[in-house]
Amino acid sequence: MRAKIALITVLTNKISKMKNFYTEVLGFTIKSETDGYIELVNEGVRFAICTRHIMADITDNHESFAEEHKGQAFELAFPCASAEDVKSTYHELVSKGAIPIKEPATMPWGQTTAFFADPEGNIHEIFAD
After folding, report:
1. What's residue 47's pLDDT?
2. Which CATH superfamily is domain 7-65 in?
């Protein structure tokens, strides 16, 4: 095996809300869907949403999938074309139901970034160089 990330799966107890968020708010389209698992169309790395229940089942009920979700475990970062695009995209996402975390701001290293959360509380970033 060579070290390469080929799939990112977001775990959830709220599959319907997460499906709506990632398709209706962020604009992903569904590549395939089964009960409790949704793969989304994404260029490059495969991207999916899966219930913790399904992951527990396929890992012989590993306890980490049964534990209550606590804190931030990952972040997805979405590139924008410009600082103005970050600002307009942030307001569009929030108007569609994204949870606002931090309004667009210029970081000390020059990027413009903004942060929002999905229905599971995962905080994500949009940015422009």
Report:
1. 98
2. 2,3-Dihydroxybiphenyl 1,2-Dioxygenase, domain 1 (3.10.180.10)
3-state secondary structure 67-111: CCCCCCCCCCEEECCCHHHHHHHHHHHHHCCCEEEEEEEECCCCC
Mean pLDDT, consecutive 10-residue stretches, the chain (129 aa), reads 92 96 98 97 97 93 84 90 98 98 96 96 96
Which pair of structure tokens corresponds to residue 108? 């000390």
The top-level CATH class assigned to 77-128 is: alpha beta
Q: How far is CA 73 from CA 1, 34, 85, 112, 119, in A?
A: 25, 25, 27, 23, 15
